[in-house]
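Researcher: Structure prediction, please.
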Amino acid sequence: MISCIRNESEMIMERSVVLCLLLAAVIAAKPADEEKKSRVHTDKLSDEEHYMNDEHNSDYDHEAFLGEDEARTFDQLTPEESKERLGKIVDKIDLNHDNFVTEEELKLWIDYTQKRYITDDVKRQWNANNPENTETLHWADYKTMVYGFMDNMDPGELDDEEEGMSYAEMLKRDQRRWEVADEDNDNALSLDEFTNFLHPEESERMRAIVVQETMEDIDKDKDGKISLEEYIGDMYHGDDDEFEPSWVSNERDQFREFRDKNNDGYLDEEEVQGWIIPPDYNHADAEAKHLIYEADNADKMLTKEEILNKYDVFVGSQATDFGEALVRHDEF
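Model: Predicted structure follows.
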């Protein structure tokens, strides 16, 4: 009897912990009312502005070249140490080992550093949900791992909403996205398919589901289109009597002048896609051209000496702890 009570108590506690963690994640993801929430998926290389008051901002280049995490730790090394470690990275970038870094090699490197966080996230979740490390992950197994706690919930609890979405709706959305990511329709995902499932914004074939999910999130009256009020309401949650941040007014102008292409007062699916997935612009290619322009002696290729002579363009006069980065770069 005591054992049964203990088991039931443990189950309740586990469920409570899961619910608390989910709620904490939702709250952490929700921006403060005065902050701007963005739905736009872009391959922008840094949150920094590349130019500020018509002056070049080198922090943008540093984050583009290194990735955000490594760029944050620059002040840990002297310029001499920074140059030494930068030289090791140059050796990694030079894929054919001809002692020249071409524009294409630099572009591939920038792409790699920018997408590393996705690779890390996919590996972490793949290992957590696929402990046997099989070649594919079946929906039934993923559902048990992620949503198994729902088996012990009362039916009424499944439809309780947390920040606008119930657990039942979360499960339904994930299953739908899973089916889109499942290219061979075997109800199991390979690692590549699982990547598309977790990060659909990175896959062209998943764009329609990204648009659909965005529409469902913002279209509160479910009329199949997004009004100006719904558009602003998704970003800003201030009370009517609060002083509105200036960016809210700017977003109203953006909606009217640029988002609503046909000027009917609403955003349809095509207009939503144009908003959240802007037309392709290859930021990595543009940044590679910029870095070569900054350091090149006119042959449109960089030697290690040219890069080290202009090391402040790539890594600044501070320094960075490249230890973990250099280990990872062996995978590149």
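Model: Residues 261 and 271 are 7 Å apart (CA to CA).
Researcher: Thanks, that helps.
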